[in-house]
């Protein structure tokens, strides 16, 4: 399979660079979706549905009469000004594929090509569902991401297993990370205000001061992980915004805070939210009050042990047993988790670092990948789906 994928390498690079040059933000991936539709039509024998979750595309290959496996790729870019001076740098100022979704889309199109050939050659039974998802990076005005919207609109109905991969620009090309169990964190955010009377800077005793209250509130917030959560449970609480309006002689009436919460365990997720509420309530001991809003984000992602094992077998057969990086899972978030709630699923991290000593981290203006990873990704996805349809691997 890898040899066949390598024969597609030039086309995969062309697709990825076209997408990288013309990035689109969440739920605005109209050109990207059109390109996906056109490419699936060129591949042939794939039934295509469009307009799912606004700009999503779903292709289906195979006659049925057997199991169905879904393969997902995300399509959206980020609001970042690209700093790379490559020939394929973004032409859409202020928008950049800085997380590799252009590569994911190209690799899934490559997998579709490989599997269409295999169906023709082997008369396979069953189906492969190719899910091209919008808006993994953001939410709509109802707080729903593209993955959740696609699940709500039925893309996982009848699916027996689902797989995906994500490029890792910090992992050497030819390496992979795959594990069963928790693989991405639940993500929630909080937006709150510490409320007081404010007043004249020369007479602080005549009112209440939210900046004075900020110190114990921050102490309480940062003490949650240290003193309120079981220390063996992976959690993060980070405050990213502290704002107040005023002047050197004006005590403001409000201080605004924003932060993020990350966790795996659903019980810990609820405890974090409860503890944040208690931390903000400290203001009342100082004569103030608070306002707090919790934004519920993606659930934690769980790699099914069996499906993760399939990906591990395939990657090992193609890249060798020394290809595996066994770094522990981090607390990044991924809305592929919604799909894994509907069917056994797993995501593989695919090494794609450019070997020149420059750290091209995700979500930065200099993000880029080694494009030799593209056929590897297509081959892993296609071969894993093929083994499931043949019955070589089972749930």
TrEMBL record:
InterPro entries: Amidohydrolase, Bact_exopeptidase_dim_dom, Peptidase_M20, Peptidase_M20_dimer. SUPFAM superfamilies: Bacterial exopeptidase dimerisation domain (SSF55031), Zn-dependent exopeptidases (SSF53187). Pfam families: M20_dimer (PF07687), Peptidase_M20 (PF01546). It comes from the Bacteria. Residues 198-280 form the Peptidase M20 dimerisation domain. PANTHER family: METALLOPEPTIDASE, PUTATIVE (AFU_ORTHOLOGUE AFUA_6G09600)-RELATED, PEPTIDASE M20 FAMILY MEMBER. NCBIfam families: amidohydrolases. This is Amidohydrolase. It comes from Candidatus Chloroploca mongolica.
